[in-house]
Amino acid sequence: MSTLTSAAGPSQGGSDPSGGSEGRVATSLGALLLDAEALYKELLRGVQLMSGPNTRLVGITSGGAWLAERLQKDMNLPGQAGKISSAMHRDDFAQRGLSSGGQTVLPFDVNGADILILDDVLYTGRTLRAVINELFDYGRPASVKLAVLVDRGGRELPVQADFAAARVTLAANQSLALARSDAGVFSFDVKDV
Fold it and tell me: Does the reported pTM lie above 0.70?
């Protein structure tokens, strides 16, 4: 059974950052309906509240990197958002190897920065642990926070998001990932594994 709770309630009005409502896709999980664009608006609101003058956005490849890139633009922040890969520090590296999702690119000094890590779906916490190890290979940030589009529970490590646009309970045999159209419109890809 799937359930959903929103961190800040449904999005109210506002302009659609994708340039219109056409092309918006809501994903259905049984009785659960997830609108990635509406959740993105909640994430934008949360990230704006969490950000300070020394905040640097870093997205986990690939869904988190897409979010960080769009947030950087929508918040009119200078420079580019960073993207970070968990591949080199994963505890299942021997089975998975290097992913094709991209490598770490941090176009700013990590030392002393307030890092806001972004991810599409928080699940076991293992990817985040690997990402934090990768981040500290680049320097010592002043602080590290986490904002996610969806927290689906199922934690295997003591990790939690500082902000989640929604909390969803899914069966262990389901995967949930962010998808992005050529036009930049977000949707969710749900699969049985």
Answer: yes
